[in-house]
Every structure is written in C-alpha cells, then in structure tokens.
C-alpha cells in the first residue's frame, strides 16, 4: 500500500518544530491522499547569558510548546492522532535521579568547548574518532560538550542525559528515550551498527548509562500525561511518537525527491547540504573534507556538511538594527539582486563566523584579507552573503558526489531558504544543476509523515511519502543560468587558487 493510496482516513497531528531562533507547533492533516499543514502557534527562542554562560531558556520553550498544543487542539476541533517533536541537535539537559532538570541546557554557541577538540585529539586522534563515528568535527558536538563539562557538579549529579527533543517528550509523557537520528549527532554513535560506540565512550570515559534506550523514528514514545492533558485541554489518550527528532533528519524526509540521484540543502540558521545514502562514507578523505554521516529514517545515512547558512544574513540584520539602521528584508533582497554578482565572496564555512556580533564587519575584514573589495553598503553585504552561500552549496554538492560515488541530477532546497528566490537561483547557477525549491516547512512535514505512517494513516517507504509531498506541496523550479566560469574564479579567490573544499 502506498502513501498515495491511503491506509486510513485523514487524521490530525501536531508537529512541534523547535529551531534555533523560534519554535512552532504545526497542525497537520494527513491521510486519504491529503497532506496539509498550518501554523497553530509560533514562539521566540531567545538564548540567555547568565554568569558568562549562554543557555537555552528551556522553560520558555516548554511553555510555548504547551500553548501550541492548546491552540492545535482548538483548531483541530477533535482528537489528535499524535504529537511529534524535532529540534536542533547536540544540546542536552541533565536530570537527577528523581527526574528533575539540573539547570538550563547550555547553548552550543557557548565558549565552553573552545579548545576541547584539541584535548580530545590528544586522547582519541581525529582519524580514529571519525572511523568510529563518521561525524564531522564541529567544536560544539555533544562529545566535546561532555568533555568540557567533566568535573562539574551538574554532570556529577546527573542520572540521565536527554537531548532537547527527548527532554520535551519526557516532560510530555514521563517516559525517557533517546531518538536515534539526533543521537547520531552526538559523535557517540557508530553509523554502521546504529548503536553507541564503545570505542569513543571508553577512550573519553563517557558514561553511556546516562542515555536512556534508543528509539527509532516511528516508535511510540508514550502518551500525554494527565497533567499535560489538563494543561492543554486535549482529550486523551494522545500518543507521542518518536519522529526523526533531529530537525535536519525530518527535513530530509520532507524532501520531495523522485529517485535517489538528488542532493538536498536544508536551509535555515545552518545550511545542511549533502546526499541520502544507504551506507556511511568513512574514508579519511571524507574526514579531511569534513563531511558527516548522520543517521536518517528507514536505515538511510545523511551524508552532509554543515555550512554557516542564513545565520550570516540574520546576524547582519541584527547588527544593523542594533546600530540604529534597520532594514526590511524584502527590499534589501531586491537591492542585492541588482548588486554586482560575485564582486566579493567569503568562505561560509569559516569558524570565524560562528559567534554572534558585528557580522558585517567580520565579512568586510574577510574580504580584505583575501584581496577582495569590501562591501560598500548593506545590499552589497547581502549579495556577498548569498553568493558565498551558493558557492559553499556548490562545493559541498560536488565534493559529496566525488567522495560517495553517487551522482546528482537535481538539488532540492528546503526549509526557510526555499523562500529566498535569489539564493535558490544563485544555488542553481553555482551548482550548474536544476534546483527545486520547497517545501519551506520540510522539517514539520517530515515530522508529520513519520507520525502518520506510525499511526497507520499512511503506508509505504520514503519514496511513497515523498510522492505525497510532490502531489501536495507548492514547489518552484530554477534552471542554472549565467557564466559557470565566474563561479570557478570566485572560488579560487578564497582558496589560494584552487576550488574551495578540494
């Protein structure tokens, strides 16, 4: 039975999608050939710095989640067939033996992991760590956070460690589990066995007993507790389903691809660009190229590289607002489209751009260091950002093909960046491949598709689920245009005369 030939009548689901800057609860209806999505509630996700440490305000997220479920229940006008939660990766909360949270989770952009990767390399060399986990070295990976927290009072008192979506699911149900796609971002999972890596845990003295049992996308995660039902006004029982709880894993489910010869770029604060494979790529060449092997739905591997993403643009807008010269995004994008193309580009993967603060200044300095003209105004800065992101997309898609042996015919851009027509067209131009843009809400749709299949409303595998997406989601197509050689020359300007990433 395929998803387009329904296994059950349409039912309502709530998809909780927590992003780095905002969260939302989406009400979806799936089944009977139908797949629709509307926003029930959106809420801000504002990190808070306390005594020098940057934290997530997890109780504000919880309050937003409950408010969203209450709104979804009112809009549905009937029972919900499920709730699923996805969020960003790597961060976690620690619980004591009674199940109480031992403090606000630390933000992955906090500086506590500065220099920790080098410490870990002295114990577990990068080639061995990559052979064991296949994960891209990023300074904020969970494994580095745990090493940085070693000796702290919180970690000493911890009985359980729950990644952010698992923490929310625990508060909803009272049942603890660790969903696999998000666990695979911790740098503690072996992508071949799809279980914890004893090599890493033993070498770094990390207690794997902190993690509750692994769950797969589609596994039941419990039911809403009586307290949550009372708080939200929902009629029970309401099942909570483990979905692909890393938002990128859900977004990849939400890629409306046909066949296997596609690349995806899940855009938002980060751009996660890569391929969907059947097995990990664990070569040392892959490690040196800084590709990661994260786990996906139905036994797949998300072979990808993290690129700085629209964070660069978001931080520019915040800096201009702080300095008293705020800009509206749409007019700025129109001005950027008229600006000189490829006048200046930066390496969008440079760690210099990870921290918040004065992004326009850092971009200008990066241009100057590579002998390129500094942007003269906001429009040129935005054009530099978008050209640079498109260039990073090109490099990553090309490298992923070469290292995996999988060729690509189409690039799918999903997530918030799918709404940015200039970025999508520039990505098509840079990659020399057609780009299909949309859906913008790929993570929430992927969340719902896994829930609906688990609930028996939809059937089939990823191909059938994606077929339903193609039939229901609004998509835009961009064909490559312009001078391909101009992109080659731009790449050489920031890579010492060779293509970036090669």
Task: Report on the architecture of this protein.
This protein has helices spanning 58-76, 116-123, 126-133, 142-149, 153-157, 164-173, 180-183, 198-204, 226-232, 247-253, 284-288, 311-322, 329-338, 359-369, 378-404, 421-431, 442-454, 462-472, 484-493; strands at residues 11-18, 22-31, 34-44, 48-50, 53-55, 83-87, 92-95, 160-163, 178-179, 189-190, 195-196, 214-215, 220-223, 239-241, 262-267, 271-277, 292-295, 301-307, 410-415, 435-437, 476-478. Residues 1-5 and 497-502 have low confidence and may be disordered. The strands form seven sheets. It has a seven-stranded mixed beta sheet, sandwiched between helices. A four-stranded mixed beta sheet has the order 3-2-1-6. The chain folds into two domains: 11-88 and 90-245, Nucleotidyltransferase, domain 5, CATH 3.30.420.40; 255-438 and 475-502, Nucleotidyltransferase, domain 5 (2-Layer Sandwich), CATH 3.30.420.40. A hairpin with a 3-residue loop joins strand 15 (262-267) and strand 16 (271-277). Helix 10 (247-253) crosses helix 17 and helix 13 crosses helix 15 (378-404). The chain contains 19 helices and 21 strands. The protein is an alpha+beta fold and 502 residues long.
Residue runs with pLDDT of under 50 for 5 or more positions: 1-5, 497-502
Number of strands: 21
Percent of residues in helices comes to 25-40%
Number of helices: 19
Structure classification: alpha+beta
The proportion of strand residues reads 15-25%
**Overall pLDDT:** 95
Q: What would you say the CATH architecture of the largest domain is?
A: 2-Layer Sandwich
Rg (C-alpha, Å) = 22 Å
Please give the domain count: 2
User: Biggest sheet: strands side by side, in what order?
Assistant: 17-18-16-15-19-20-21
Distance, first to last CA: 44 Å
Within CATH, the superfamily of the largest domain carries the name ATPase, nucleotide binding domain
Q: What is the CATH topology descriptor of the largest domain?
A: Nucleotidyltransferase, domain 5
Largest sheet: 7 strands, mixed
């Amino acid at each position: 039975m395929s998803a387009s030939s329904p296994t059950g009548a349409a039912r309502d689901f709530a998809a909780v999608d927590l992003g780095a800057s905002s969260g939302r609860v989406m009400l979806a209806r799936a089944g009977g050939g139908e797949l629709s999505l509307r926003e029930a509630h959106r809420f801000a996700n504002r990190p808070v710095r306390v005594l020098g440490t940057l934290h997530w305000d997890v109780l504000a997220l919880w309050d937003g989640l409950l408010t969203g479920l209450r709104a979804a229940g009112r809009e549905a006008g009937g029972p919900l067939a499920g709730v699923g939660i996805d969020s960003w990766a790597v961060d976690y909360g620690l619980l004591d033996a009674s199940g109480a949270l031992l403090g606000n989770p630390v933000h992955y952009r906090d500086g506590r992991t500065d220099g920790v990767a080098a410490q870990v390399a002295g114990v577990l060399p990068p080639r061995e760590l990559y052979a064991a986990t296949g994960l891209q070295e990023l300074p904020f990976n969970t494994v580095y956070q745990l090493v940085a927290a070693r000796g702290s009072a919180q970690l000493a008192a911890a009985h359980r460690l729950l990644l952010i979506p698992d923490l929310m699911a625990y508060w909803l149900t009272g049942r603890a589990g660790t969903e696999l796609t998000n666990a695979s971002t911790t740098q503690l999972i072996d992508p071949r066995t799809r279980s914890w890596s004893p090599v890493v845990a033993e070498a770094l003295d990390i207690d794997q007993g902190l993690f509750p049992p692994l769950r797969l996308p589609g596994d039941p995660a419990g039911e809403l507790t009586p307290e949550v039902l009372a708080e939200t006004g929902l009629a029970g029982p309401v099942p909570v389903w483990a979905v692909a709880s890393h938002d990128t894993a859900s977004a990849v489910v939400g890629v409306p691809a046909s066949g296997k010869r596609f690349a995806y770029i899940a855009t938002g604060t980060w751009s996660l660009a890569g391929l969907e494979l059947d097995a990990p790529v664990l070569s040392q060449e892959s490690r040196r190229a800084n590709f990661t092997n994260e786990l996906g739905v139905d036994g797949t591997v998300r072979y990808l590289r993290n690129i700085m993403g629209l964070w660069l643009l978001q931080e520019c807008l915040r800096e201009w607002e702080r300095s008293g010269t705020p800009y509206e995004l749409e007019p700025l994008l129109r001005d950027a489209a008229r600006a000189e193309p490829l006048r200046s580009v930066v390496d969008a993967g440079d760690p210099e751009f990870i921290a918040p603060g004065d992004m326009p200044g850092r971009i200008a300095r990066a241009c100057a260091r590579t002998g390129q003209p500094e942007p003269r105004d906001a429009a040129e800065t935005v054009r530099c950002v978008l050209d640079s992101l498109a260039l990073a997309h090109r490099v990553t898609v090309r490298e992923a093909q070469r290292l995996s042996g999988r060729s690509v015919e189409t690039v799918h851009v999903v997530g918030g960046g799918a709404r940015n027509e200039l970025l999508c067209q520039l990505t098509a131009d840079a990659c020399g491949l057609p780009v299909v843009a949309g859906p913008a809400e790929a993570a929430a749709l992927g969340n719902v598709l896994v829930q609906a299949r688990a609930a028996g409303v939809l059937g089939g595998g990823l191909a059938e689920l994606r077929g339903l997406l193609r039939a229901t989601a609004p998509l835009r197509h961009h064909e490559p245009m312009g001078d391909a050689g101009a992109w080659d020359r731009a790449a050489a300007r920031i890579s010492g005369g060779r293509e970036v990433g090669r």
